[in-house]
């Protein structure tokens, strides 16, 4: 498997790239090749005296390349210029990436400002699964909030086609996951359902749980009522999840609207990592 690892060369990005436990997690899910990518924004002019942006960034990537190669990965580097999320998506498609990894700082004082614009745009437009790794804020030596990325998974499903597609990610995640919580949130509008209908979500979650148990993943189910995003975030805290796994929906023809409101809210508000699975490329 190939992963595209985006970096802005900040201290936060460096903390993630140099984390040995993180390397082991990626190796466990089958990542063999890593493409390190940094983008020089098109509004920064290379011709300014003393800038040499591409050269400085390439030298930084060379250092990161050595770290990744010492961890056992085959590594290629890319220094490109343009709109970050567009260039990142373009390279992901060109190299046939199976996963894009982007770092994001942790909690922000401003609501819905937890993730930066590049990460937010990647979440809305990525055509390959996107892993958003949460990194500590407001510290001179930042680190990952959860070094063991996939140890405790929280899978959120509305039983849609793309939620089913997200569940398929466990075929590789099972080699790194120790436990999983499967969550379905019922809307308050569903309070008038019959007893049989009320039991259906739990039964469907039990079927998924049985599959994970066969892979030696300790699994429990949780059916909740309320606002989906609120309940998913509450479940993340309650079960101390290291990563939330969920799918995005592709109902709109507009690329920027591919991400459903629930997914976007979860990505913005989650304390830990988020693994987002988009619709298939043909969609």
TrEMBL record:
Residues in UspA domain copies: 4-134, 150-278
InterPro entries: Rossmann-like_a/b/a_fold, Universal_stress_UspA, UspA
Matching SUPFAM superfamilies: Adenine nucleotide alpha hydrolases-like
UniProt cross-references to Pfam families, sorted A to Z: Usp
Recorded family membership: Belongs to the universal stress protein A family.
PANTHER family assigned to the protein according to its UniProt record, in alphabetical order: STRESS RESPONSE PROTEIN NHAX (PTHR46268), UNIVERSAL STRESS PROTEIN UP12 (PTHR46268:SF6)
Protein name as it appears in the record: UspA domain-containing protein
């Amino acid at each position: 498997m190939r992963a595209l690892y985006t970096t802005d060369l900040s201290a936060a990005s460096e903390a993630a790239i140099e984390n040995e436990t993180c390397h082991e997690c990626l190796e466990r899910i089958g990542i063999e090749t890593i493409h390190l990518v940094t983008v020089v924004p098109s509004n920064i002019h290379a011709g300014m005296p003393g800038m040499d942006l591409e050269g400085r960034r390439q030298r930084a990537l060379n250092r990161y390349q050595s770290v990744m190669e010492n961890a056992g990965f085959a590594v290629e580097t890319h220094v490109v210029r343009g709109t970050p999320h567009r260039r990142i998506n373009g390279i992901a498609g060109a190299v046939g990436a199976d996963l894009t990894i982007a770092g994001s700082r942790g909690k922000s004082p401003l609501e819905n400002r937890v993730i930066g614009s590049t990460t937010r745009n990647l979440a809305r437009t990525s055509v390959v699964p996107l892993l958003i790794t949460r990194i500590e804020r407001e510290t001179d030596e930042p680190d990952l909030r959860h070094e063991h990325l996939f140890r405790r998974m929280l899978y959120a499903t509305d039983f849609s086609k793309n939620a089913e597609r997200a569940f398929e990610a466990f075929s590789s995640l099972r080699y790194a996951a120790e436990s999983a919580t499967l969550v379905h949130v019922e809307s308050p509008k569903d309070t008038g359902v019959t007893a049989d209908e009320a039991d259906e979500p739990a039964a469907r979650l039990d079927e998924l749980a049985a599959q994970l148990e066969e892979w030696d993943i300790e699994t429990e189910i949780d059916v909740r009522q309320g606002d989906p995003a609120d309940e998913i975030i509450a479940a993340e805290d309650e079960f101390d999840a290291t990563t939330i796994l969920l799918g995005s929906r592709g109902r709109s023809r507009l690329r920027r609207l591919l991400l459903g409101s629930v997914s976007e809210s979860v990505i913005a508000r989650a304390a830990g990592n988020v693994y987002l699975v988009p619709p298939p490329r043909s969609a």
